[in-house]
Specification:
Length: 606
C-alpha cells in the first residue's frame, strides 16, 4: 500500500490529539456497553413476550436466541422519492436474515423530510433540527435491548447524519447502512437550471417550470444531482459502512436487491458472538472521519457536510474543525465533475467508474486511510471494486479506466489540484466557501452590501429590479439559533441571473446554501451568527464587502473605529406556525456551525 500522504497523516494526527479525551471517554462507554453482554437473555420473560408478540414467524428462533436479532431502523415514507423505495425492504430483509440464521424486526421509524419540498418555505426551518430528531428517534428505536445488530435504512440530507449520530450511542453493535440508489436520469440538470433562471427573469411561466421539475424528479430514488443526499452515500462508502459499491445502483434492479441481501447476510456475520466482530463505534474512528472529508473534497460534494461530518464525528468522541477541511483541501485533487460542478448526474458518474474508481485512485495516491475497519472486510481496498452480477452471483471487479474523463479523472490528472473548499476569515467572522463550481475570475468579489433578514425579501428586491448592480447580498439571522439555519437555495436562480448579466455578485449568510451550491460565490455558515452578537449583524446597506477565496478573507471594508462603535441589528421576533415553535428548545441550545450546529451534542451531551 502506498505511503500515506503527509498532509493526510498530519491532519489525522491533529484530530487524534485534539480528540484524545472525548474519544477515550466514548470508547470506554462502548466497552462498558459491550461488556454487559447481549441484552436479550437478560430481559424478563414478560419483556421478551412484548418484543416478540408481533413476530409469529420468527418467534421460536427469537426465543432460542441462537442467532442475531437485527433491528431495522427505517426512514421509509412515500412522500420522499429516495425513501419510497424502502417500502418492501423490511419483509425482504426478514427472509434474507433467516437465510443467514438470524431474525430481523423493524425497531422503529425516523422522520424523513424533504428539503426539495420545503425549500424556500417555513417548513425548511425544521430541516436541520430534523437531524437531531432522527438521532433521538434512532436511539429510541434501539433502546429496547433486543438487538445484536442494526440495519440503517436512510439516504437523504439529514437522515444519514441523524441515523449515524443516534446509532453511535449503540456503537458496541455492528451496523450497516443500506441505501436505495438514485432514480434513473430525467431532464438534464443543466436544462432544469436554465428553466429556473428563465422563470426567475419572468421569461417562463409556472406551467413550464413545473413541467421541467417533474421531468427532472420523475421517479423513486434519490435526486440525480450531486447534492447532500448523494454526498451522504459517497461518505458511507469511503467510511466503509456500505456493502462495497452500493451507493449509486438504481432502485428496482437485480443488482440493487443482491447488494441489500448481501448486507443482511454480512451483518449477521459480524456480531459479537462470531470471530469477526465489527462494532460501529470502532469502524467510525479518526481515520474514517478523515476519509469522509477526503471523499467530500475529491468529488466536490455538498457544503452541508461542513456541518454534518463534525456532528457525526462528535457523536463518536472525535473533534474535526473547518481548518482540517481547509488543510485537506490543499492536498486532495478534484477528481469528479458532477452537477452542479459539471453537466453529468450521479448516474453518469457511476457509469464512468463511480466510487470504486475514486477510492482505488485515492488509495493509490496515499490520500485515504486504507487500513480502517470496514463492515465488508479487511481495509478499504474492497471498496475500490465495482459490484456486478455474474448470473445470480454477486461479484466485485476492478473498475478499469475512467469511462468518461469529462466526468471522472484519475487522481494523478485531476480537474483541479485541490478540493475547492476553503475557510474565509475576517472582521465579519469565519465562514466556508465552495469554489469548485465557481469560475476562477469570480473568486474575488468586492461590492456594496444589500442586507436582508429573510430570503423572500431578496426575491422581492430582485423582481423589483433593486439588485441590478454589483452586489454582495447579505442574509442574516439565518443561523441555527435564529431560525434553525434553513437552506437558501431559492436564491440561486436570481443571483445566477444577476451574475449572467455581468455584475459582480456574491452571497454572505449565517445560514446554509443548498447541497447543490453552484456558480455564485457564497460565504456561508458565517460564525458567530447574527443572533447573539456575530459581526454579520453590524453590516449596513452600502458597506463595501470583500470576499477573497484566494487569500481566504471575508471583510467589511469599514473604518475600524466606526465598525467597533456600531450596534448590533435587532433580532427579528421568533417565527411561529408550521411547528416551528416546537423547536425553540433546539434553537436555544444549538452550538455553532463549525461544531455541527446541533442541540443534542452541545456541551458534550452526546
Amino acid at each position: 500500500m502506498p505511503t500515506l500522504h503527509t498532509t493526510i497523516a498530519a491532519v489525522t494526527d491533529r484530530i487524534v490529539e485534539r480528540s484524545r479525551p472525548t474519544r477515550s471517554a466514548y470508547l470506554a462507554l462502548m466497552d462498558d456497553e459491550a461488556e454487559r453482554g447481549i441484552r436479550r437473555p437478560q430481559l424478563g420473560c414478560a419483556n421478551l413476550a412484548h418484543a416478540y408478540a408481533g413476530t409469529e414467524e420468527d418467534r421460536d428462533a427469537q426465543c432460542a436466541a441462537t442467532g442475531m436479532n437485527i433491528g431495522i431502523v427505517t426512514a421509509y415514507n412515500d412522500m420522499l422519492s429516495a425513501h419510497a423505495v424502502y417500502y418492501r425492504y423490511p419483509e425482504q430483509m426478514k427472509v434474507w436474515a433467516r437465510e443467514a440464521g438470524a431474525t430481523a424486526q423493524v425497531a422503529g421509524g425516523v422522520p424523513a423530510m424533504c428539503d426539495g419540498v420545503t425549500q424556500g418555505y417555513a417548513g425548511m426551518e425544521l430541516s436541520l433540527f430534523s437531524r437531531d430528531t432522527i438521532a433521538l428517534s434512532t436511539a429510541v428505536a434501539l433502546s429496547h435491548g433486543t438487538f445484536e445488530g442494526a440495519a440503517l435504512l436512510g439516504i437523504c440530507d439529514k437522515i444519514v447524519p441523524g441515523l449515524i449520530m443516534g446509532a453511535l450511542r449503540f456503537g458496541h453493535l455492528p451496523m450497516i447502512l443500506i441505501p436505495g440508489g438514485p432514480m434513473p436520469s430525467g431532464l438534464p440538470n443543466k436544462a432544469k437550471a436554465a428553466v429556473r433562471e428563465r422563470y426567475a427573469e419572468g421569461k417562463a411561466g409556472r406551467e413550464e417550470l413545473l413541467g421541467a421539475e417533474i421531468q427532472a424528479y420523475h421517479g423513486k430514488g434519490t435526486c440525480t444531482f450531486y447534492g447532500t443526499a448523494n454526498t451522504n452515500q459517497m461518505m458511507m462508502e469511503v467510511m466503509g459502512l456500505h456493502m462495497p459499491g452500493a451507493a449509486f445502483v438504481n432502485p428496482g434492479t437485480k443488482l440493487r436487491q443482491a447488494l441489500t441481501r448481501a448486507a443482511v447476510h454480512r451483518l449477521a456475520a459480524i456480531g459479537a458472538r462470531g470471530d469477526d466482530y465489527r462494532p460501529l463505534g470502532r469502524c467510525i474512528d479518526e481515520r474514517a472521519v478523515v476519509n469522509a472529508a477526503v471523499g467530500l473534497l475529491a468529488t466536490g460534494g455538498s457544503t452541508n457536510h461542513l456541518l454534518h461530518l463534525p456532528a457525526m464525528a462528535r457523536a463518536a468522541g472525535i473533534v474535526i474543525d473547518w481548518e482540517d477541511f481547509d488543510r485537506l483541501s490543499g492536498a486532495v485533487p478534484l477528481m469528479a465533475r458532477v452537477y452542479p460542478n459539471g453537466s453529468a448526474d450521479v448516474n453518469g458518474f457511476e457509469a464512468a467508474g463511480g466510487m470504486a474508481f475514486v477510492i482505488r485512485e485515492l488509495l493509490g495516491e496515499g490520500l485515504l486511510h486504507g487500513d480502517i475497519l470496514t463492515v465488508a472486510g479487511d481495509g478499504l481496498a474492497a471498496y475500490g471494486e465495482k459490484p456486478y452480477l455474474d448470473g445470480d452471483t454477486l461479484v466485485w471487479r476492478d473498475p478499469g479506466a475512467t469511462g468518461d474523463d469529462t466526468i471522472l479523472r484519475p487522481a494523478a490528472s485531476p480537474f483541479a489540484p485541490d478540493g475547492g473548499m476553503r475557510i474565509l476569515q475576517g472582521n465579519i467572522g469565519r465562514a466556508c466557501i465552495k469554489v469548485s463550481a465557481v469560475e476562477r475570475e469570480r473568486w474575488v468579489v468586492e461590492a456594496p452590501a444589500r442586507v436582508f433578514e429573510d430570503q423572500s425579501d431578496v426575491l422581492a428586491a430582485f423582481k423589483a429590479g433593486d439588485l441590478e448592480q454589483d452586489v454582495v447580498v447579505v442574509v442574516r439571522f439565518q443561523g441555527p439559533r435564529a431560525n434553525g439555519m434553513p437552506e437558501l437555495h431559492k436564491l440561486t436562480p436570481p443571483l445566477s441571473v444577476l451574475q449572467n448579466r455581468g455584475f459582480q455578485v456574491a452571497l454572505v449568510t449565517d445560514g446554509r446554501m443548498s447541497g447543490a451550491s453552484g456558480k455564485v460565490p457564497a460565504a456561508i455558515h458565517v460564525s458567530p451568527e447574527a443572533l447573539g452578537g456575530g459581526a454579520i449583524g453590524l453590516i449596513r446597506d452600502g458597506d463595501l464587502i470583500r470576499i477573497d477565496a484566494n487569500a481566504g478573507t471575508l471583510d467589511a471594508l469599514v473604518d475600524p473605529a466606526e465598525w467597533a462603535a456600531r450596534e448590533q441589528a435587532p433580532a427579528p421576533a421568533p417565527a411561529s406556525g408550521m411547528g416551528r415553535e416546537l423547536f425553540g428548545l433546539f434553537r436555544g441550545h444549538s452550538d455553532e456551525a463549525e461544531k455541527g450546529a446541533s442541540a443534542i451534542l452541545a456541551g458534550g451531551g452526546m
